[in-house]
Write the structure tokens for this entry.
Amino acid sequence: MVIGKAPALGSRIVRDLLEKYRELIRFLVVGGIACIVDNGTWYALKLTVLDTSPVKAKGIAIVVATIVSYVLNREWSFRRRGGRERHHEAALFFLVSGFSAVLNLVPLWMSRYLLHLRVPEVDWLAQEIADFVSGSVVGTLVAMVFRYWALRRWVFPQARERTSGTEARSEESTAGRAATRRVEVSTVNAVNAQRRQPGVQVGQVRRERRRPQRTTTRAARRRRKAARRRVRGRGR
């Protein structure tokens, strides 16, 4: 019995954890997508038109990734949150993202200009490894932690469902059907509770209630037969 219940218990625990940390999981997925966009744009610029300005290339890449991140976070990660006007929400999002972009650039700047991990002080491979670790790993992690905290606190502060008109009508219809079903179930339970007696099943109660009706019918038939006999005796 315990072994049979283990898979169901495990799936319920996993489902509860996914529900509890749904926003965080979605935020991390969006962060991964934004990271791919960020690095793809950064390397595309750094290895072509901005090969002498890696920090500027990183800044442009961050702006592009921020736009992608805003759309996905608003429409998916924090879809159940809101509480602000659209333009206020967008302004706060880009303000938070701008500060997180500064945090993202700080490790890269320190690697290049404080630690001098650049050509000709180091070879090209060491420079690229240092750029990746400082800009794409350390900087991204620091910025991601700050962005998640700031988005929940200031940009999407209230937990509420942001739905379209069709979705809202569908949810209202579903809620109405659920409420009707609850009323029906409570009514049936109340009727069954009135019918039940201690130690007596519902079927027994029904049979006991039908017996007096059958007895009454038989007695009426006997009275009618007796009346007919009396009428016949008088006729003779």
